[in-house]
Amino acid sequence: MVASRDAEKVHADLPEALVIASPEEAIRHPDVDLVVIASPNATHAPLAKVALEAGKHVVVDKPFTLDMQEARELIALADKQQRLLSVFHNRRWDSDYLGVKQVIEQGLIGKVAHFESHIDRFRPEVRVRWREQNVPGSGLWFDIGPHLIDQALQLFGLPQTVQGNIATLRPNAEINDWAHVVLNYPSHKVILHCSMLVAGGASRFAVHGEKGSVVKANADRQERQLLAGVVPGSDVWGQDDDALVLFEGTNPPRTIATPNGDQRQYYMQVRDALNGERANPVPAVEALAVMAVLEAAVKSSETGQSQPLDLTRAEQASLG
């Protein structure tokens, strides 16, 4: 079942799908157990609230909500209703991230001192779409920032403070299209960067440690494969021929094969969680932590000062 005003478009991909124009009507349908909210950012919290109040399990696309207050209200409601509330942080199953994570966990570069993560694009022309208009929840930082933040938090946990510099660089742009954010930890730095004006030359990941460095030049291919018509789960799905490059002191650099990515794992794990076979793959409190970093970066950019995370002790404790 799909809630959409464009039934023809839905049926082009899902010819047997039941299409209902009203999302509220679809949410309340008695045959629905799980509601997936992949609508514009400003509608995430209102629709998730309707779904939870209707007794449905809920998956929300990133960013979880527009602000911390909305996120906390949804978490409390899900607890009250005893329903699964999960956030689609799908980049945990990207090939580039999995490869870098593997190198770090195996200790090949030693203790990390500097971690840099970029998701850059080259779109000098402003597009007429809500993500690039001055509406709540728009802008590159709320679009790409959640991916960058979630991966960093999975690797390193919560930072002590956040420094943000968020800007609008393209002519005629209405909302931010460039962000450079530093997560401050006691003994290392994490740099998160996204831009709409990078035609090339920036690596997806560059990580430097006490024993060496690892660089991943190109990004995971799953999104491009989908656009090219590759069927998820096919033999080539998630394959990444761009190897990691490992630098170890004075030794010649060597390559390490990049593991396959597979974002389908998220929904497989949601299915298993609903069947009581495993935990929620992305608990809402982890998405709350992402929201805390998003907000801290915005506040830092506005004030010019580094900011702590607005998380309670109980919330921090639940994150480990």
Automatic annotation (TrEMBL):
Residue ranges constituting the Gfo/Idh/MocA-like oxidoreductase N-terminal domain according to the UniProt record: 7-89
A GO molecular-function annotation: oxidoreductase activity
Provide the top EC class: oxidoreductase
| Ranges where the record places region Disordered | 301-320
- Give a yes or no for keyword Oxidoreductase in this entry: yes
Which keywords appear in this protein's UniProt record, sorted alphabetically?
Answer: Oxidoreductase
Does the keyword tRNA-binding belong to this entry? no
Pfam families with a match to the protein in the record: GFO_IDH_MocA, GFO_IDH_MocA_C
Specify the domain of life of the species encoding this protein: Bacteria
InterPro entries in alphabetical order:
Gfo/Idh/MocA-like_OxRdtase_C, Gfo/Idh/MocA-like_OxRdtase_N, Gfo/Idh/MocA_oxidoreduct, NAD(P)-bd_dom_sf
Gfo/Idh/MocA-like oxidoreductase C-terminal domain residues are 101-305
EC number(s) in its UniProt entry?
A: 1.-.-.-
SUPFAM superfamilies in the record: NAD(P)-binding Rossmann-fold domains
Give the family this protein belongs to, as stated in its UniProt record: Belongs to the Gfo/Idh/MocA family.
The name of this protein is Uncharacterized oxidoreductase ydgJ
User: Which species?
Assistant: Ewingella americana
Record gene name: ydgJ_1
